[in-house]
Design goal:
single chain, 190 residues, alpha+beta, HSP40/DNAj peptide-binding domain, six-stranded mixed beta sheet, four-stranded antiparallel beta sheet, 17% helix
Length: 190
């Protein structure tokens, strides 16, 4: 078994030709949110993936094996619920409202400009339909949002990631914390 313990988010820093030539593994969301798992790549090699705890693997990420070989991760199609606003009576606000209610339930959710995706759940599907949303079961890759603190050390905006460490600490004691407004008067970058 070949060990993989390094992950390159979206293959950043690698020449595209190297990523295209890499063997592949196709994994569903359940597996990609684990930091330790066994799998077989497209060339038949047995791989043991051992990443730092809490690491989430995304479609397009590249694993580096102990022998230096690269393995490109593909997100496997899986059953998901595709949620859209009713084309006759709905609006973009309905989709925002649905995302709010799903987020309030801490459901992994993939956000797209014109639809949402969640893992199958008949109770949530009924709730969404009651909100006049269109809910359809489909087989597609599932890449839910990583949350406010993100995976890979920050969150992503259209291909570039950044974190929000502003170089100052925030006190847990609200009575002694100095108020801090983020805006033109700030002395740090955003």
């Amino acid at each position: 078994m070949i060990t993989c313990s390094k992950l390159m988010p979206q293959g950043r820093g690698l020449a595209r030709v190297l990523v295209q030539r890499a063997s592949t593994i196709t994994l569903d969301w359940d597996t990609r949110q684990k930091s330790r798992f066994d799998t077989t790549d497209s060339t038949g090699r047995q791989l043991g993936v051992f990443l730092p705890r809490g690491t989430v693997v995304r479609g397009g990420d590249v694993l580096v094996a102990e022998d230096g070989s690269l393995i490109r991760v593909e997100a496997a199609p899986q059953e998901v619920l595709r949620i859209t606003a009713c084309s006759e009576h709905g609006s973009a606000f309905d989709l925002t409202r649905a995302a709010y209610h799903l987020g309030n339930r801490h459901v992994p959710i993939e956000l797209k400009p014109d639809h949402l995706k969640i893992e199958p759940d008949h109770v949530l599907a009924d709730m969404l339909r009651a909100m006049h949303m269109t809910v359809v079961a489909v087989s597609e890759a599932f890449e839910p949002e990583s949350g406010a603190y993100g995976d890979h050390g920050g969150h992503s905006h259209g291909g570039h990631g950044h974190n929000h460490d502003h170089g100052h600490s925030h006190s847990d004691n609200a009575t002694t914390a100095e108020p801090h407004a983020h805006g033109p008067g700030c002395k740090h970058e955003h």
